[in-house]
Amino acid sequence: MGFTPLEGLLMATRSGDVDASILEFLSHKEGMTLQEIDSMLNKQSGLLGLSGLTADMRDLLEEEAEHQDRRARLAIEIFCQRVRKYIGAYYVALGGAQAAVFAGGIGENSPLIRRRICQGLESVGLHIDAARNDELASGESGEISAEGSTFRAFVIPTNEELLIARDTYRVIHDTPRRW
Questions:
Q1: What's the pTM value of the predicted model, to 2 decimals?
Q2: 31 near 22, Cβ under 8 Å?
Q3: Residues with Cβ < 8 Å from 94, sequence gap 6 or more?
Q4: Do residues 106 and 59 lie in contact, with contact meaning Cβ atoms separated by under 8 Å?
Q5: What gap in Å lies between CA 37 and CA 30, rounded to an integer?
Q6: Three-class SS of residue 152?
Q7: What CATH number does residue 50 fall under?
Q8: Closest Cα to residue 44, out of 13, 2, 18, 68?
């Protein structure tokens, strides 16, 4: 994320990176105010805007599998492509990397999305072990990269509520952060 959560990766309802000229285009072409555009980009875009159905990846995967919904497929494909793009960009910016970590709701819980994201990352040394990826249950952590991968992949569940509680305690009691 950048100045706001809008910059960066496409999210459930947020557009992620967009061409800045979209603001002028929507203002002139659609007659939208800056507040309307901001609301649209933050609350009606992302997976929801692309699919026209839902902001929930689980529901999109179901729609794609059961009904071959083209907009659900498009939302999933764009999401995975954008994650790959960011992995590649940071890999280059850092001069290489040792691992990618999948966390959060989608990263922790969707072997299919993890596999789709990693397709095409073989050029940087990331190869997924399909069995490891598929067997890793929700809430479990582990490595999903294949033996011999020079760029590894892991799934590590997050506990954002616990982190927020610890940070709140630390701030209130003026104690140093312990990593």
A1: 0.88
A2: no
A3: none
A4: no
A5: 10
A6: strand
A7: 3.30.420.40
A8: 13
pLDDT of residue 179: 60
Can you tell me the distance from the alpha carbon of 60 to that of 41, in angstroms, rounded to the nearest whole number?
20
29, 12: one domain: yes
Domain assignment of residue 65, given as a range = 1-96
Q: How many domains does the chain have?
A: 2
**One domain for residues 90 and 103:** no
* Mean pLDDT value across residues 45-52: 97
Please check whether residue 152 is in contact with residue 126, taking contact to mean a CB–CB distance below 8 angstroms. Answer: yes
Give the count of alpha carbons within 13 A of 80, CB side only.
21
Residues 141 and 153 in one domain: yes
Residue 61: other Cβ atoms inside 10 A: 17
Higher-confidence residue: 3 or 97? 97
Is there a contact between 104 and 163 (Cβ–Cβ < 8 Å)? no
